[in-house]
Design brief:
alpha+beta, Helix Hairpins, Heat Shock Protein 90, five-stranded antiparallel beta sheet, five-stranded mixed beta sheet, 12 strands, binds adenosine-5'-triphosphate, binds magnesium ion, EC 2.7.13.3
C-alpha cells in the first residue's frame, strides 16, 4: 500500500512536470511562429514601398560619384581607401534626403509601430581584365549607404539586390587617351530593425499567456489538493492502525485477568472459601472498572473544545495547584518523583473550570513521568505577563524530536521513538489537554529537545 502510494505520487509529479514542460514548449513555439510572422509582415510592407523615381535618383547620384572615383582610381590618381572615404562622404550628404523620402513612403503604410531602416553596401567589385574588389576592404566590412544607424546583428534582413552595369572611363595612364570598358557589380542589402518587436508579439499573445497561466495555477492547485488529501488519508489510516493496536493492547491485560478470575469461580475449592471468593470478585470488579475507564477515556478525551461545557469560576490558583501536585504525587508509584515548584503570588484568582483544568495539568504531569527514564524530575512555574497567566511544566525526560512536535496535539498521535511498548497510551492526552486549554481561550506550546527534556507552556488570558 505504502509503496503503491509512493509510486502514485512519483508518477503524478513526473506527469505534472512533463505536462508543464510541454506547455512551456508549445507556448515558446507559438511565440517564435508569431514573431516570425510579424517580422515577415513588416518585411512585406517595406518591400511593397514604391521605389519612386526620387528614391532611385538619389541612389543614381551616389553611383555617379562612384563612377567618377573609379575613373580616378583606374588612372592611378587615387587609392581604394580614398575612393571609399569619398563614397561615404557622398552617402552622408545624401542620407537625410533619401531617408526622409523613405519615411514618407513608410508612413503611408500606417504600421502602428516604429521601424528603423537602412541600405547597406555588401560589396563593390570591378570586372575588367581581372576582378578588383573596392569593397569590402581590409577591416572595413560595414558600409551603410542610407538610413538609420543600428547594429546589423540586431536587424532583420529585408532584401538583397545586385546591380551589374557596364561603364567606360578615359584611360590616360599611357600618355594617350583611350576609352576603356569595365563592368561594375554592386551588392546591396536592405535591413530593418523593429525595436519593440518582442513586446508587440508578447502583447499579441497576452490572452493566451494569461489563459495558460490560469490553467496552470488551477492544475497546480488541484494537484496539490489531491496530494494533500492522499497524504492525509495515508496518515489517518496509519493513525487508525496505531489506535487499534494500542486499544487492543490496553484491553488485553484486563480481559486476560478477567478470564482467569471467572475461571477460578468455577473451581469448587475457591467457591467454598469466602476470602478467596471475595478476592476473585474484587479482581473482576477492578478489571471491569479498568475497561469502563478505558472506554470513558476514549469517549471523553475525543471531545472537541466547542463541545466542552465549562463551568467557569474564580479559583484561588496557588492552593488549587498545590492540591493537584499533592494528589498527583500520591498517584505515582512506578518511579521516584521529584517536583519543584516556583509560583508567582502576584495574583490570587483565575477564572477557570477547576475540573477540566486539573485534568489538563494531570495529563501533562502524567506524560512528564511516563516519558522520563528511571527518575522523574519536574518543575512547575507560574507567571503573569501582558494580562495573561502562564503555567510552565518542565521535565528532564526523553524529549521529543523537532519534526514530531508539530503533530503532538493531534488525536491518537504518539511519537514512534518514545519506547511505546513500555509506556502505554492512546495518544489522546495532549489532544484533550489542548482542547481544554482552547475552551479556556488559551494556548499550549511545547519546546523540547531529544534526550534533554520537554517544556509545555499554557497561556490563559485573564477574563475580567
Ligand atoms: P494517553 O492518551 O494515555 O495520554 P499518550 O501519553 O501516548 O497516551 P499524549 O499524552 O497525547 O499520548 O502524548 C502524545 C505523545 O507525545 C506521547 O506518545 C509521547 O510520545 C509524546 N510526549 C508527550 N509528552 C511528552 C513528554 N513530556 N516527554 C516526551 N514525550 C512526550
Ligand atoms: Mg499522555
Amino acid at each position: 500500500m505504502k509503496l503503491k502510494v509512493t509510486w502514485l505520487i512519483v508518477i503524478s509529479v513526473i506527469a505534472f512536470i512533463a505536462l508543464s514542460v510541454i506547455q512551456g514548449y508549445l507556448i515558446y513555439n507559438t511565440y517564435t511562429l508569431k514573431r516570425n510572422a510579424f517580422i515577415q509582415n513588416t518585411r512585406s510592407e517595406i518591400l511593397n514601398i514604391d521605389y519612386n523615381k526620387h528614391l532611385d535618383s538619389i541612389v543614381d547620384t551616389w553611383e555617379e560619384t562612384l563612377k567618377n572615383q573609379i575613373a580616378d582610381y583606374k588612372n592611378k590618381r587615387t587609392t581604394k581607401q580614398i575612393v571609399l572615404n569619398k563614397l561615404r562622404q557622398k552617402a552622408d550628404s545624401l542620407n537625410s534626403n533619401y531617408y526622409n523620402l523613405y519615411k514618407e513612403e513608410l508612413a503611408h503604410k500606417d504600421l502602428g509601430y516604429a521601424v528603423s531602416y537602412k541600405k547597406n553596401i555588401e560589396s563593390i567589385v570591378i570586372f575588367d581584365k581581372e576582378n578588383d574588389t573596392i569593397f569590402p576592404l581590409a577591416e572595413q566590412t560595414n558600409f551603410k549607404l542610407f538610413g538609420n544607424d543600428f547594429q546589423n546583428s540586431k536587424a532583420n534582413s529585408v532584401s538583397v539586390s545586385r546591380t551589374f552595369s557596364q561603364y567606360d572611363y578615359i584611360d590616360q595612364t599611357e600618355n594617350k587617351i583611350n576609352t576603356q570598358h569595365y563592368n561594375l557589380e554592386i551588392k546591396f542589402k536592405d535591413l530593418m530593425y523593429i525595436k519593440d518587436k518582442n513586446s508587440i508579439v508578447f502583447k499579441q499573445m497576452l490572452g493566451l499567456l494569461i489563459g495558460s497561466l490560469f490553467l496552470f495555477v488551477v492544475m497546480l492547485g488541484l494537484f496539490y489538493y489531491s496530494l494533500k488529501s492522499l497524504m492525509a488519508q495515508k496518515k489517518i489510516s496509519a493513525v487508525k492502525t496505531d489506535f487499534i493496536n494500542n486499544i487492543t493492547h490496553e484491553l488485553k491485560t484486563p480481559l486476560a485477568t478477567l478470564g482467569i478470575a471467572t475461571k477460578s469461580l468455577k473451581n469448587q475449592q475457591i467457591l467454598s472459601k469466602p476470602e478467596t471468593l471475595q478476592n476473585s470478585l474484587a479482581i473482576i470488579d477492578r478489571q471491569n472498572e479498568r475497561i469502563q475507564k478505558l472506554i470513558d477515556q476514549v469517549m471523553t478525551n475525543s471531545l472537541k473544545a466547542q463541545h466542552l461545557k465549562l463551568a467557569l469560576k474564580n479559583v484561588e490558583i496557588i492552593p488549587f495547584l498545590n492540591h493537584i501536585v499533592e494528589d498527583f504525587k500520591l498517584s505515582v508509584e512506578a518511579k521516584p518523583l521529584q517536583i519543584a515548584i516556583a509560583f508567582n503570588h502576584q495574583e490570587k484568582e483565575l477564572k477557570i473550570d477547576p475540573f477540566y483544568f486539573s485534568t489538563a495539568i494531570f495529563n501533562l504531569l502524567d506524560n512528564a513521568v511516563k516519558y522520563s527514564k528511571e527518575k522523574a524530575k519536574i518543575k512547575i512555574t507560574t507567571d503573569y505577563n501582558n494580562n495573561c497567566f502562564f503555567l510552565v511544566i518542565k521535565d528532564e525526560g526523553i524529549g521529543i524530536p523537532k519534526k514530531e512536535q508539530q503533530h503532538l496535539f493531534e488525536k491518537f498521535y504518539r511519537v514512534s521513538s518514545s519506547n511505546l511498548q513500555a509506556n502505554q497510551g492512546l495518544g489522546l492526552g495532549l489532544y484533550y489537554t489542548q482542547q481544554i486549554i482552547l475552551a479556556h481561550q488559551g494556548t499550549i506550546k511545547v519546546k523540547s529537545e531529544k534526550s534533554k527534556g520537554s517544556t509545555f507552556t499554557i497561556k490563559i488570558p485573564k477574563i475580567q
